[in-house]
Amino acid sequence: MRVNNGTFDVVSEATLIEVQKMPPTRFHPYHGENIQLFHENLVAYRKTSFAHALTFSEEPLKPGEIFLVEIEKTERGWSGHLRIGLTQFDPRNHFKLPQYALPDLANMGKSWIYAVNKSHNRIFTGNIEIDEDQSTEPYQPVVGNEDLIQTPRGTFSRSLLLPVRFPMERKNGYCIPKKGSILPTDVGSRIGIMYVVNDDRAEMHFIINGLDQGPCAKNIPYQDGPLYAIVDVYGTTKQVRIIQLYGVTSLQNACREIILQMVRKEDIDILPLPTKLKQFLLYEV
Question: Ranges for the NHR domain (predicted)?
Fold first, then answer.
């Protein structure tokens, strides 16, 4: 359904069926010894310590495909936060996993990994790293400026890249969280990773709460092997969940994803639905 001048329209059955046909994005069952996977390998939880918490995408990413996670739980008492990136190490080979993505896995080669921090708002212009707020020209994000984002795996609403229930503002033609309303390391923050191809090389981009951070790694030899997303549930980050951009695991989840594409998150409370269903839409139950 969609909110339209106070009325509610029903999304076609064909739309739901088309979404159901897309395979869901999951974590690979091979992971660090301190990781537990829940909800059909959609949620990764670090059960103890702060090490041995590597997780991988179940399938390698296609150029332009976004792998998106949301931070669901944090834990005080640790330093550092989520690490995320790409690797050509294949989890199907059950290679010996190091304790950490940084520096251990990165030092093994074939991996491009970066730590998410509280003030991740930098982009690259040429070889110069600049703060976006100090840029004289608006950065042109690789995902474009439209409300619908087209990728090789399908089209989805830009709203899925945004955290739920945080104040928004429009910038460069699209919505992003208001400055200071949510940090990249906070519960609810949505962190995406993708790569784009330039000739025989690729560059990796972070998408943090709907905002393309620019290329954080260049000259990736993507033709040398498939690129898997890697997430290290490290430090204060305790649990992450994959946000389904392309596929769903059930008709119930398909309905939720369609509604979240059609209804602004701040309008969910006005839907004529029971409280439990509203909580389900917001992933609160």
Answer: 24-245
